[in-house]
Amino acid sequence: MKEVLIVTDPEKIKLLGDRTRLEIVNLLRERPMSVPELSAMLKKSPSTIYRHINLLEKAGFVEEVGRDGNETLYRRSARIFLIAPYQDGTWQHQQ
User: Counting Cβ atoms within 10 Å, is residue 65 exposed (0-12), middle (13-18) or buried (19+)?
Assistant: First the structure.
């Protein structure tokens, strides 16, 4: 696991704007978990959690770390996500 992941891609930043994905990332701060565990904790269907995990994994926020029986365990890819909305090396802000 990396210590810090700097996120500058607006599409990846937008992914964390979804409440369920943000809750998944926060829960995985504590320890690796399986989809059924996350599903039970968040009171959402396993298919919903799988969909969110797949998006988070493709974006580089979570990664597979092993198996617990038949279930894949996931963890955060970094301890800290630094959101830095840069574009071409400059800060973007609205006036």
Answer: middle
70: CB partners within 8 A, 6+ apart: none
Around Cβ 10, how many Cβ atoms within 10 Å? 12
* Identity of the residue numbered 21: R
Mean pLDDT of the region 31-38: 97
Residue 2 pLDDT greater than 50, yes or no: yes
61 versus 93: which is more confidently predicted? Answer: 61
Q: Give the integer Cα–Cα distance in Å for 73 and 9.
A: 26
Residue-averaged pLDDT of the chain: 89
Q: What are phi and psi of 25, to 5 degrees?
A: -60, -40
Output the six-digit token pair for 56: 């988070």
